[in-house]
Amino acid sequence: MKTVKLYIKNMVCDRCIKVVREELQKLGYDIKSIELGKVEIIAPHQINKNELELSLAKAGFELLDDSNDKMINDIKSIIINQVHYSEDINQPKENLSQILEKEIRRDYSYISNLFSTVEGRTIENFIIQQKVEKVKELLKYGEMTINEIAFELNYSSPQYLSNQFKQVTGLRPSQFRNMLESGRKQLDKV
């Protein structure tokens, strides 16, 4: 039996991992490891690539063959993990460009140019998008202040977070939070 590494596009959360695991198990593959964008399977028989691609496509995923696509997928997975799932609150924050260089094992300028060429946007834009989504999530919970969120996400200041949030969403974080709270109040009346 051989181990085969698969690279899968659009795996962005724990639910995606669950869905991909279920799809692969339906096809009879034993999973050695699974993480965002990557699955290692133990293949007791020849892999039916068409069947695998079709099954993943039905669930909204895509099997990647091209090495550049695989690298872009890795870059996205690393960023998503760092922004959404990193729990090293007491650790000094490492720059994402340094993390990418270390994980991808390529110079950041190469990584950045490849990402921009393939995606049509910069890594920085993707990071900002992910951070804004994380801010929205934290605002929905209502347990943290803007200052705490800014610190948590390694912003230089709450004002910088607020400006970036408004640039992406058209709203200040406080306006977004108020909008959520007014929606909850209306639901409470029902």
Tell me briefly what this model is.
This protein is of the alpha+beta class. It has helices spanning 14-26, 49-58, 67-85, 96-104, 108-119, 123-141, 146-152, 158-169, 173-189, and strands at 2-9, 30-35, 38-43, 62-64.
Question: What does this protein structure show overall?
Answer:
This protein has helices spanning 14-26, 49-58, 67-85, 96-104, 108-119, 123-141, 146-152, 158-169, 173-189; strands spanning 2-9, 30-35, 38-43, 62-64. It has 190 residues and is α+β, with helices and mostly antiparallel strands. The protein has 2 domains: 2-65, Alpha-Beta Plaits (2-Layer Sandwich); 69-182, Orthogonal Bundle (Arc Repressor Mutant, subunit A). It has a 4-stranded antiparallel beta sheet with strand order 2-3-1-4, sandwiched between helices. Helix 3 crosses helix 4 (96-104), helix 6 (123-141) packs parallel to helix 9 and helix 7 (146-152) crosses helix 8. It is globular and about 55 Å long.
Structural topology:
Blueprint: E1 2-9, H1 14-26, E2 30-35, E3 38-43, H2 49-58, E4 62-64, H3 67-85, H4 96-104, H5 108-119, H6 123-141, H7 146-152, H8 158-169, H9 173-189
Antiparallel strand pairs: 1-3, 1-4, 2-3
Helix pairs in contact: 3-4, 3-5, 3-6, 6-8, 6-9, 7-8
Features:
globular, Arc Repressor Mutant, subunit A, Alpha-Beta Plaits, alpha+beta, about 190 residues
Approximate shape: globular
Rg over CA atoms, rounded to whole Å, is 19 Å
Lateral arrangement of strands in the main beta sheet: 2-3-1-4
Tally of individual helices: 9
Major beta sheet summary: 4 strands, antiparallel
| C-alpha termini separation | 58 Å
Name given to the CATH architecture of the largest domain: Orthogonal Bundle
Strand content: 5-15%
* Total individual domains: 2
Helix content range:
55-70%
Overall average pLDDT: 87
The CATH top-level class label of the largest domain: Mainly Alpha
The CATH superfamily of the largest domain turns out to be: Homeodomain-like
Structural class by secondary-structure content: alpha+beta
List the uncertain runs.
Answer: none
Helix and strand string, N-terminal first?
A: EHEEHEHHHHHHH
* Count of individual beta strands: 4
At CATH level 3, the topology of the largest domain is Arc Repressor Mutant, subunit A
